[in-house]
Specification:
alpha+beta; two-stranded antiparallel ribbon; 6 helices; 36% helix; single chain; 12% strand; 4 strands
Length: 144
């Protein structure tokens, strides 16, 4: 019997969000190949690289330019001109590379190995990959 997911298997949740939060909505082609920790590393790399998140002795804070960075054209001299677009493209690229890597066991491969050890499944799982990223911007926090 093939392994597959159905819409009825989706979980529905409700969350409170804050200024500077990043929401990642993605198909199983992403989650089967990248762990939540790997996604956090990608998001953190871009958010800190563009100073949308800033580290200090008090922890991580939201940068003053987050509102501008999240608008179309907010990132100058880049093909992807908003922060959320850059994040979505980066996550998509990492997931695609992982899905085609026969030497790297992603979350899907690890689950198969755990529950079906006789399958000898290794590497990524080629699948549809779609990512939508939302960056939460509170206008009262940006002075807009």
């Amino acid at each position: 019997m093939p392994l597959r997911d159905f819409p009825r298997d989706a979980s529905v949740t409700s969350h409170h969000v804050r200024h500077g939060d990043v929401l990642v909505f993605a198909t199983d082609g992403v989650w089967d190949n990248l762990s939540a920790n790997e996604l956090l590393q990608i998001v953190s790399r871009y958010m800190t690289g563009f100073q949308a998140w800033q580290g200090s002795d008090k922890g991580t804070t939201v940068g003053k330019d987050l509102g501008a960075l999240s608008k179309e054209g907010g990132i100058i001299k880049e093909k992807e001109s908003s922060l959320q677009t850059m994040l979505a493209v980066a996550i998509t690229g990492e997931a695609k590379a992982a899905s085609q890597n026969s030497r790297r066991d992603g979350p899907f491969a690890k689950e198969v190995q755990k529950f079906y050890p006789h399958e000898d499944f290794h590497g990524g799982k080629v699948d549809d990959i779609c990512v939508v990223v939302a960056v939460v911007v509170d206008a009262s926090e940006t002075g807009a």
